Amino acid sequence: MKIVATIARVLMGVVFVVFGANQIVPFLPTPAMPPGAMRDFATLLGSTHYTVVVGFFQLVPGILLLLNRYVPLALTVLAAELVNILTFHILVARSGLFPIPIVVVILWIIVFWRVRGSFAAIFAPTKQE
Fold first, then answer.
1. Is 19 within the bounds of a domain?
2. Burial environment of residue 129 by CB neighbours within 10 A (0 to 12, 13 to 18, 19 or more)
3. What is the CB neighbour count within 10 angstroms for residue 52?
């Protein structure tokens, strides 16, 4: 399981470094956007430079995963990113569950399972005083 988790961590790190860096300094070709909500959403994010913020919060955790440092922190930040990516594909793109985000969620779960002990305090019940 350790080898599988390491491979998952590295793959997820590469995905978020590449796509996070692409959000900050575009270097991958961008397909034409279909008219409608998807184009409007992408235009709004681009014109406000919000994509740079999104890219930063993908790039930094991706680097942390590749360096194998602060992995629980990286997973916490990427959990929010993954929720937004899945929500975008379901509600805005209307394409349903796109295969790549599903694969990345599976990779996230594998890495999370390996470091789940770091999250023990979050899931522990607290005493009421």
1. yes
2. exposed
3. 14
The encoded tokens of residue 103 equal 């694969």
At a CB cut-off of 8 Å and minimum separation 6, what does 78 contact? 12, 16, 58, 61, 108
Answer whether residue 36 shows pLDDT above 90.
Answer: no
Handedness of CA 77, 25, 32, 51 (dihedral sign): positive
More confident residue, 74 or 41: 74
Distance CA 115, CA 23 (A): 28
Domain of 29?
Answer: 2-116
Looking at the structure of the chain, the number of domains it has is 1
Q: Tens digit of pLDDT for each residue in 44-87? A: 988 999 999 999 999 999 999 999 999 999 999 999 999 998 88
The single-letter DSSP state of residue 33 is P
Cβ neighbour number for residue 17 with a 10 Å cutoff: 19
